[in-house]
Known about the structure:
Blueprint: H1 6-9, E1 10-15, E2 18-25, E3 30-34, H2 43-47, H3 51-54, E4 59-63, H4 78-93, E5 98-103, H5 105-116, E6 121-127, H6 141-151, H7 155-165, H8 174-184, H9 187-197, H10 199-211, E7 228-233, H11 245-250, E8 254-259, H12 266-269, H13 271-282
Parallel strand pairs: 3-4, 3-5, 5-6, 6-7, 7-8
Antiparallel strand pairs: 1-2, 2-4
Helix pairs in contact: 4-5, 6-7, 6-9, 9-10
Amino acid sequence: MSTFTHQDTLREVTTPRGVLRYHEAGDGPPLVLLHGSGPGVTGWRNYRGNLAVFAERYRCLVLEFPGFGVSDDFGGHPVIDAQGAVPAFLDGLGLERVDIIGNSMGGGVGINFAINHPERVGRLVTIGGIGTNIFSPGPSEGIRLLQEFTEDPTRQRLIDWLHSMVYDPALVTEELIEERWALATDPETLEAARRMYGKAAYAGMMEMMRRADFPMPWAVMHKLAAPTLLTWGRDDRVSPLDMALIPMRTIPNAEFHVFPNCGHWVMIEAKAAFERTVLSFLAQA
Length: 285
């Protein structure tokens, strides 16, 4: 099994809005991996542990979304910019059709892209983070801790948020804390995060959605044509398990896999089981 490093896999492509950076590893059908949100997140940090396995069968392309400190910041709301980045990225690489894995926010971006460009997505895998609360209160514990860090970033607030992401606290190592802290407190990256998770911005977004005359994202998932695998940590404190109920029921070709003793980072905390499950799903005719 190959070993991949950050620098050896790093690439970039120029789009009309700015430079998008990404990591590439392996050969085969294209598999695009979309990261989630949160302090110090990058696509590399979300998926570096899975690349060796997936790259044995696929050309893995780990996109770094605008506004998270690696690709150029497009200047808008990070979710909106991420949605625009996916078609620009695929066009820049000349890719017509891909499979997609999306973690949390990346899963929502992947669903949006698959609904609007059904001919360009073969199979789709999501990792938590989609749907809407049915029984659990919102915002969740993890989102509240994320807001608190974004408003007033301290090392302890970062540690508290990191612990909400996992079932096993041993995963929150000093190395993880330090690498997340360095990027999360970068002024430009923090400013972009506040456009998304600052309390005023978050409240404004919720109010806009409440008053909107268009359906919520979870209400249009019946339009998703791509075969979809929903993966979830049973003990997710960021996007509780009940959020999966509407996507599971309304996505026409959805499968649903729950991993025990696992929080929000399924691809990290349930690494081997996640990889087996995803590879089996992607290999289906």
